[in-house]
Amino acid sequence: MAETFVAEASVALDFVPDAVLFDMDGLMLDSERAMLETWREAAAAENLAADDAVWLAMVGMHDRASLAHLSGHFGSDAAVRLRDTSYRLYDARVAAGLPRKRGLLELLDLLDARGVPKAVATSTQRPRALAKLAASGLIDRFDAIVAGSDVEHPKPAPDIYLLAARELGVDVRRCVVLEDSEPGVRAALAAGATPIQVPDLVVPGEELRAFGHRIVASLEQARSLLERVLANKDAAQAG
User: What is the pTM of this model?
Assistant: First the structure.
């Protein structure tokens, strides 16, 4: 993946962000792999057959859209059973603490050291989002947490990023958004924010890449982009 995104990763940020807004699943937490595995397990328990493309198509979707997607494949009754079984299996993994993505803590430390406010903006419903952040030791690292249940229109609508910026008291147009999924990138762009995409399980297609946003291979590369522009700010102030 790193070679695929070299060109996009080299495009420096052209402003110093007033805040950085973080997606959660697949961006900060290695949760999409865990969810993929629980969908497989749940399908087997319900005697349903599907390839991984069915599950991967739900990456970045909110709950209602995911259920509609499953209903289209399996029918509404089977979809509800499949969802409930998968969530039960997944909640057990959440309780044990999902792995953090490599480079996340160093990125958070950089933003803390430079006094840059941070918020979580996740499509996950608030109770599960808080449980994930707490179990992974991240809940105290953010100035605000906005969940899918806090807005009327989920990603790819801009609502969640507009609300996160308001919670921090900043202009969303002065925010960098870190996202892994297509719905999240579309939401950030619709809000007027500047997204940096860090793809996880799903490689961005040509239609998404046509937006021209920055795409990097890792949170380490995202940190480099932010560190560079913050260092330029420090140099300008010192001069």
Answer: 0.85
